[in-house]
Amino acid sequence: MAVKPRYYETLYIIRPDIKEEDLAKIEQRLHDALAAHEGEIIRFDKWAQRELAYEIQDYNRGTYYIIIFKSLPGAVAELERHLRFYNTDVLRFMTVSITEAAANKEKAAQESKAAEESSAPEPAAPAEAAPAEAAPTEAAPAEAAPAEAAPAETTPEAAPEPEQETKAESEPATAEPTEGGAN
Amino acid sequence: MESPRDRKYFARKKVCRFCTESLEMNYKNIDTLSRNITDRKKIVPKRNSGLCARCQRQLATEIKRARFMALLPYTVLH
Fold first, then answer.
1. A147 vs B36, B50, B73: nearest CB
2. Residue A150: which pLDDT band, with cuts at 50, 70 and 90?
3. Mean pLDDT score, B68-72
4. B15: closest chain A residue by CA
5. Which residue among A13, A140, A179 sits closest to B21, beta carbon to beta carbon?
6. Which pLDDT score is estimated for B7?
7. Residues with Cβ < 8 Å from A27, sequence gap 6 or more?
8. Do B18 and B59 touch, CB atoms closer than 8 A?
9. What does the alpha-carbon distance between residue B50 and residue B12 come to, in Å, rounded to a whole number?
10. Cα distance between residue A103 and residue A106, in whole Å
């Protein structure tokens, strides 16, 4: 049976003080690697520049790049080989396989983004995503309320649980809209 | 009908947040994931998170992915 192409997502972290030309070189090489294996790139761009949760190779910040592509499984090993080759610049990388539905969603997002790009370049995308996301998240706390209120009511009657504190702490963030749409 | 409050202990009704709200669980979605870790950055156990088994498993996977990519810390001691 022939091996079917699958959808993958690779996220890699580049050190923050990289030179422009090195960055371009890496990107070019990854593009070539995928092209050589008949990989179809759905998305290839900078995802975020952020603080790392912990130090990697003495760096506390990193730039995240994301590649979403469709290819045969063999291409993943090849892509990762190239990423490993630049192991001083690429702090970390990870490839996960994603569902076709997720890939198609991404594809549609990319296409609509490309259409928007002519009018407003980068900031448009997160701003557009936020209102759409806001509706489900606003409705959500109402549904979640009974479940979340219940533990609080129990506290006086039931035996005190040490974990109660941590739960309470993790909850206030609930109402915040997620960034999911912007990804 | 006996109301749940009259019982000495009552099984609190847990509804899986991820199932009911169809939240997207993804390792890049740090806000969602960080709600399910303790202040010591441990993954909140199922008995406290109230998630269904499937969601809890997937959540654990996504948190571990996020940790590997330095999106979430493994511990507070870093």
1. B50
2. very low
3. 92
4. A147
5. A140
6. 61
7. A44, A65
8. yes
9. 10
10. 5
**pLDDT tens for residues A60-108?**
999 999 999 999 988 899 899 989 998 889 999 999 998 888 888 888 8
ipTM over cut 0.90: no
Q: Is B70 left (phi over 0), alpha (psi -120 to 50) or beta?
A: left
pTM for the complete prediction?
0.64
The gap between the terminal CA atoms of chain A, to the nearest Å, is 35
Among A53, A170, A180, beta carbon nearest to B70: A53
Single out the residue of A62, A34, A38 nearest to residue A50, CA to CA.
Answer: A62
One DSSP character per residue, chain A reads: -PPPPEEEEEEEEE-TT--HHHHHHHHHHHHHHHHHTT-EEEEEEEEEEEEEEEEETTEEEEEEEEEEEEE-HHHHHHHHHHHHHTTTTEEEEEEEEE-HHHHHHHHHHHHHHHHHHTTS-STHHHHHHHHHHHHHHHHHHHHHHHHHHHHHHHTTTSPP-TTHHHHHHHSGGGGSPPSGGG-
- What is the edge-to-edge ordering of all strands in the sheet holding A59-71? A40-56, A59-71, A6-14, A90-98
Contacts of B72 in chain A (CB under 8 A): 53
Q: Taking CB atoms and an 8 Å limit, are A183 and B28 in contact across chains?
A: yes
Contacts of A62 in chain B (CB under 8 A): 70
Q: What are phi and psi of A40, to 5 degrees?
A: -105, 115
pLDDT at residue B42, rounded to an integer: 92
Using an 8 Å CB-CB cutoff, list chain B residues near A141.
none
